[in-house]
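Discussion board: Methods & Data

I've been asked by a reviewer to show the raw model output for two of the constructs in my manuscript, not just the figures. I'm not sure how much to include, so I'm pasting the format here to get opinions. Each protein appears as its amino acid sequence followed by a line of discrete structure tokens. Is this the kind of thing reviewers expect to see in a supplement, or should I convert it first? Here is construct A:
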Amino acid sequence: MTTPRRLFTAPIFENELKTRKAHLLNIIIWGLILIPIPYVLYHLIAYSEHLSRALIQAGFGESINMVLLYLLKRGRIQAASSLLVCMFWLFYTVSAFTLDGARGASYLMGYPLVIVIAGVLLGGKATMIVTFFSLASGGIMAYAETHDWLVAQVSQDPFFLWIVSLSVFPISAGLQYLAARQTREALLRARASEEKYRLISQVTSDYTFSTELDSKGNPRLSWAAGAFEKITGYTIEEYTATGGWRGRLHPDDLEKDSQNLAALKSNRPVVAEIRIYTKPGELRWVRAYAHPVWDDRQNKLVGIVGAVQDITKQHATEERELHRRAMLEKVIRLGKVVTEVKDLQTTLELIWHGVHDDLGFDRLGIFLYNFEHHAMQGTLGTSRLGQMEEKWDRWYPLDEFAIFLRILDKPDGLYFTYDFELENGIGRDGDMAGVKDYAAVAAWAGNKPIAMICVDNLITGRPIREEDLEALRWFSGYAGLAIENARLNSALQNELLQRQSFIDELESKNAELERFTYTVSHDLKSPLVTITGFLGFLEQDALSENREKLRSTIARIISAAQKMQSLLNDLLELSR
């Protein structure tokens, strides 16, 4: 920007209001700079005897204008405005007192110009002050003139006032135009701001409000803006007609609202989370920020201003998170319980009760994976009345049930559908008829599939939420370990029982063997004793040559030997 242009252009500031005020001040100063020109020319041509006075006045006025212009360029807008009003009021006051009094141009045209400038630059309060002092000054001049203390020299030339008006009237008209334009621009900005606010209100979840208290101290909505209709579903008139704020509250929150109103009547602000019913009957959570409007003279609450924020989604998210944490704690507790049980039947029953009673599913089925048969074996299920029932006799080959195979394919296998009946072509009859939300999860132990848990909410019709599925997946991990531990424990118990049975049988055999050995020893001993005894007789018979007796003894010995041979043959046969 060139130097001459910078000289005639008002400075620009970050504050928009200050920039507009600087623009007005710049126009006024340059207008005042031009005022002395026709005034001096008039005295030079038609009133030369007062030319020196006109030059002094013009010089003084231009000096003030230069100072004001300097302050303007330096950004001292308020100081320049105040100095302009004061100095030019004093200038016109001195001019009036020293020349033409209350009937001259200084009073009749100068003071009105200063009053208009004060109103434009400094506001209504400054205008009233300047007007008061101007009227007081005029009164003093009139009183002084009536008592001959002031000799007014009023010009008789009709062109004098016209020459002065050539400068004053255009400046006054220009100021009125600028003021009117400023007002129009302010209105346009207000409308644009209102439209912007309206557009923002359509997408925001808040609304602001103002409430007045009636003679009985009951609040009544007087104004609301923002997303009021979006949140409540009502217009302000409908809202007021149906009972207002209290009429839309959830019954359980009425007492809380009464406590909040009592706090406001004690001149304390309130922030509260409340449930309200919308026009369609939907329940919403809102957070209300209420500030008391206090009447110090009456020392009481006369109104409430504040804002209301729709926190339904936020509250639902918080509730889901709390529910999720509670479910996680429950799953950990249940997991500890089921993994401590060693019996398979008891383990399966605890898993059933954990899923049904604690996780809150209406029905469930537990299926064990059988590797040898490549099939799922039914164990415990649920009737359409929600009762546990055993289904050990049911088998489901994986080749015929691809959904089972797909779920068991990986440890985090999950199947979920919002309409099981439609998706799987279920008829009107059977256990699965009418099932909508349905889920199935795999239960693994280490790197192998163990079982599968299937659930639905056929009885209550409640939707299965994401946090419910998450809890079921967590619990299935514990269930897989618990079932595998129970199986291994059962197998170990069976092996121990078999070993114990073998030991008992062995001990029984040993006892029998001991008894048998005793008997055999006794039976073998008897023929030996017989043989030994008859050998002595045989010797005697041989020496006495008693042949008959010798033959009898030999026969007895042979019989005893044969008996022993028979016993030895029996022992040999028994050992085989």
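Construct B, same format:
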Amino acid sequence: DGRGRAMESYVPYGEESTIPVASVQKLAGDTLIRAAQRGRKVTVDQKKFAAYVYDLVDRHDGTIPDRSLAFAPSTRDLAKVTNTFYGHRKTLGAGYRYDIPEYGPGLGFEEYETFPGVRTEWVNPLPGDSFWYENHSVLNAGRTDFAAEMRSAELDYRPGKEYRAEWFAPVTRPRLGTGYWGPFRTVNNDMQFNITPWTDAGEGHSGSMPEDEYDTTSYAVHQGDTLIKKGAGRAGYAWDLSPQKLPYRLVIDSVRDAETWKSSTRTHTEWGFVSGALDPN
């Protein structure tokens, strides 16, 4: 007996169980109990990574149902998503699809995935202004941080429709998306920006490499030909700007290890724009 590979969170934080612990559904649990009572040896096969996923939400707003909560939609009630994950070598990752209700944040945590690969997923539409949000990450060698993280925009699915999504597909480059907060100027004559330099080719995606971005990414803000601010990382700010409408240029440089990532190992992007004081009202 000993600790296994499962995420074991059945004991107080900081403590470890002496044997592997896993939760199962009631019907499977009843079968295991009967087998144990008869003294039988039970062999369990583990499938570490899911080949298919069901993301289903059954909401009951403003009421406590007086009927069974069993939820068994048919395939015509669901959207079919073919998720393709790219990569030039096998690597461990994590990801999740969150349902974001209109009244607050979504709940969940990323689960282990393996890249490259293809997975079939079944998703039901959400009511009202709720939406689905998805992100996937490549873990670093120590599995302690995200070497690369890719975030989606707001996702909406229709029943009976088929969708395709691609993650970590080339060409990787800087691009703005709604998964991260974006550039803005305030009435106090300052601007803030957040450029995601490692975004894949997936529609609506935005991506970064949070593990070492302050070592591998830098920015510089110019007003005309004058450098007014520079720093490390993908996000920064510039204070005390002129209220006049003037030309600006934001330069982002980022590099990553060629042996690890193989392609798109260096990016240089310049964003030119005109900015002036905002109406305080």
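Answer (T.O., handling editor elsewhere):
This is acceptable in a supplement if you add a one-line summary per construct. For B, something like: The mean pLDDT is 91.
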